């Protein structure tokens, strides 16, 4: 079952339709790379070949929308897993939040001594709920805004 929202599915459908030149409900493998780049993905040739092998289930050299949707969901989940791994490097006590002390510890370990005010300003900037902590959702929103 898909974990995508209706809005995400519609966004992917709109993107898919842009590249479905003859409006027959499929895009060619050669067009798929253009689609991925338009959606902010930059696979290497090897990664692209692996993706094609995974998603072109019937091997006909064309991607149906359902196959395309599977690909987009897989790419989103991979990104979320990477974000979670990065978040975990900051969330030292594994309570689901990055707090000032944890952020200071990370910067100290990198050799960057920041003042209390600088750390607090970073937390305040990222903390959308106003609880003085950075949640995973706050973190992913921030890195998305920063283009990381």
- State the shape: elongated
Average pLDDT score: 83
Q: List how many beta strands DSSP finds.
A: 4
What class, by secondary structure content? mainly alpha
Strand content: 5-15%
Widest sheet: strand ordering: 1-2
Q: Could you spell the SSE succession in H and E letters?
A: HEHHEHEHHEH
Q: C-alpha Rg, in Å? A: 20 Å
Uncertain spans, ≥5 residues at pLDDT below 50?
Answer: none
Largest sheet: 2 strands, antiparallel
What's a concise summary of this model?
By secondary structure, the protein is mainly α.
Q: What labels would you give this structure?
A:
elongated, 148 residues, mainly alpha, two-stranded antiparallel ribbon, single chain
How would you explain this protein's 3D organization?
Helix content is 63%, strand content 7%. By secondary structure, it is mainly alpha-helical. It has a two-stranded antiparallel sheet. It starts with 5 loop residues before the first helix and ends with a helix.
Topology summary:
Elements: H1 6-19, E1 26-28, H2 29-38, H3 45-55, E2 62-64, H4 65-90, E3 97-98, H5 100-109, H6 116-126, E4 134-135, H7 136-146
Antiparallel strand pairs: 1-2, 3-4
Helix pairs in contact: 1-4
